[in-house]
Amino acid sequence: MTSMKKTRQSQQERSASTRHKLLSATLQIIEAEGWHRASMQRICEHAGVSRGAQTHHFPTRESLLIASVREIVKRYQSDLTEGPNRLQGLEAFFDFLWDATFNDNLLICWVEAMVAARTDKSLKRVVADTDASSLTAMRALGTESRNISGTSDNKNTSQVEDIVELTVYLLRGLVLQEGVHENLSEKRRLFEIWKQLVIDVS
């Protein structure tokens, strides 16, 4: 019985490791070369995983992309609600969004996918659904962070959620500008102006 349990755990560990390698490789290739260059063959080679193992876990590269995004969003939610970076107010939440945008590859990859989705119908469907659920989660976290500040007011909840969503859109725009305007300090200056404006009215 103990031997069977160890074997089962070992299989689960190998499966989890394979998934992690594939998800990481997907994000890395999309960040470096864009969605259209992220073929299944390139992802598998980068991950050091066979095509058979990839197909077993993720039959399409769309499913790989969505799983990558969902896993990182879940990690962000966990960090903000349970970890050392847990919510400490709306301003801290906006700072967290900035760090997640420019110190991680998630949003860069997501913007790449959204651009590609304009002309890819199958990708558009999965991107639209995942984006909607991610925005819903961010809106809820924004409201929770504001309430932690001791300024809870039900009548302004929707306003705070809208501000959070607009902030996400702003950060996406700043990511798009990276290709032609690389001055991160200037982007940060503009973001600080936005942050103070919206926090004052929320």
Give the gist of this structure.
This protein is an all-alpha fold and 202 residues long. The protein has helices at residues 2-33, 40-47, 51-57, 61-81, 90-102, 106-117, 121-148, 157-177, 184-201. Helix 8 packs antiparallel against helix 9 (184-201).
Question: Can you characterise this structure?
Answer:
The protein is mostly helical. It is built from nine helices and no strands. α1 packs across α6, α5 packs antiparallel against α7 and α6 crosses α7. The longest helix has 32 residues.
SSE diagram, text form:
Elements: H1 2-33, H2 40-47, H3 51-57, H4 61-81, H5 90-102, H6 106-117, H7 121-148, H8 157-177, H9 184-201
Helix pairs in contact: 1-2, 1-4, 1-6, 4-7, 5-7, 5-8, 5-9, 6-7, 7-8, 8-9
